[in-house]
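User: Quick sanity check before I run a bigger batch. Here is a single chain. Can you write out its predicted 3D structure?
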Amino acid sequence: MYSPAFKYPTIYGKTLLRETKLEGDLLKKRSPNSFIFLLRALDMGKKEITNEFESLFPEEKKELLEDFFISKFIFAYSTTPVLNDFLDSFEKHTLFFLEREKDSDILKIAVALGSDLRLGDYKDKTFSLSLFDYISASHKRTDSLVYKDLELGRVFLSREELISYLVSKISSDFLKKIPQRAKLPKYFEAYGKTLNFLSLVSKNTGLSYQEAFSFLKEEGSIRKIVDDRKLQDRFFENLRKKLPREKAERLRETISRKISFVNLSLKSRFPPCVEIILRNLEAGENLPHNQRFFIACFLSSLGFSKQDIVSLFEKTPNFDKHITEYQVEYVMKNKYKPFDCSKVRQEGFCFEQPICKNAKNPLTVQTRIQREKTTGFARRKKQKSRQKREDKIWKK
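Assistant: Done. Predicted structure follows.
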């Protein structure tokens, strides 16, 4: 029987690790283990939920819990397919345990998440949740609010509907805690790039993440292969020997079109919601219309040229230069502004960070980021000037 810390690590796990500081040498030492932990977790998403369902944690070891929390640093450099694969595993893990909890324990879990949940009969519904809590979470699994029973600002839910809400709430809380890249050690970038590469190999060959990683290790330096197109070509040549030729050739064409790890968001800091869209565009993802419109509005508001914006969409599978140019021109001509933060949350691509606190629009967050850059530059210039004066004094 698993303890609460390993059933719901984002809620109770930190209590177990309260004396452990995941930073400095310990962080660097544990990061390879966290990467291996992630490979197994990413493969778990493909398994069916049964009574013998395998947990994210093979055993209750404190080190595995550390690996789980370190994984969010790697996800800062991961693309949406990798995050989605992990969330599939994480949600299955959470769902398996929630379905086996008593109603009283589910109530405690909801309270620990900060949700205003109460017991109370209404028709055939056992629970009621505040309307604000319900709409503020990202509901991948939950039915539309249109089909829910509402009364006096509360949403009435059955046990199954509540579990769906909690699974989604726990997942969205995990995503919100993925840190910004600027604050992370650079070695996490290498792990993120490798996961992105393995994701493409896995999805186009049917290999598991662990199988793809084993083959990648056999080829030599992983970091060099992930960063070097010539070494990637050699990797695919060898992979072709293990796969049907047509499938291996299609894999190479797919990755050549999609993958390029020169990420625009690494060169410029943007709000988290913008960064993740730029990251997905760079990886060649087929974004929904609302995200395409949002990113065009945001960048045009910052003064980016039409060509700069159009070039971002070149790697998308259905790219049409003339249509894209027309749509970007239309956005620029009408001076459309990007969605407000409330709309971004509603659309499901908000990854709120401390710098976003109380912001009403991503442009406000961008202003804060620019201000932070300017003050940081001024501070460094002042320190350098002070150092020069001190050096002169010592020379005398």
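The first strand starts at residue 117 and ends at 122.

User: Great, the batch can go ahead then.
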